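Table S2 (text version). Query chain:
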Amino acid sequence: MSDVEPATGRADEISSPSPARRPADEPTADVVHEQLSPRAVGYWRASLTLRLLPLAVVVTVAALLLSSLPGGLRAAAAIVAWGGGLLAIVVVPPIRHRIWWFAIGDEEVDLHHGLLTITRTVVPMVRVQHVDLHRGPLAERFRLAEIELHTAAGSLTIPALDQEQAERIRRQVAVLARVPDDV
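Corresponding structure-token output:
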């Protein structure tokens, strides 16, 4: 029996897709597509609130103090500040969680994220120089941590991981990248 397809006359291709033919939104074949922690949504909402609340207060106070502006414009500035902030806090985190994925294989780390601009980054494991695990006070409250992978070209972050998952990934990348574990 022949390996050639009768209709095209071409030999059958290897069953796994080549890297050039892999869909852009799928992780590489040898790795598992992982999502961030479900608690990331609450964490990002709290983080946005802590950043946007002072901004909304400043805009509102400035609008009240600028008596040279018409009352309607001052009110509109305050409404936009509070409404836009509230909209961002409610809408952005669930979307951000849904589109953020990562995959860690034996030979590469694959990250996919972005809201308006989608970023896909694939880093060969041999390029990873060291791995950091970060937990700030707010992340600690949500039992989350982030992993930062350092290469000669810069660093990449995988945010909002469960603390246990982050520690497992840190160890896994350290072993695969042959990074000494001094911790």
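Notes on Table S2: The two ends are 58 Å apart (CA to CA). The beta strands are 34-35, 101-104, 108-113, 119-124, 130-134, 144-151, 154-162.
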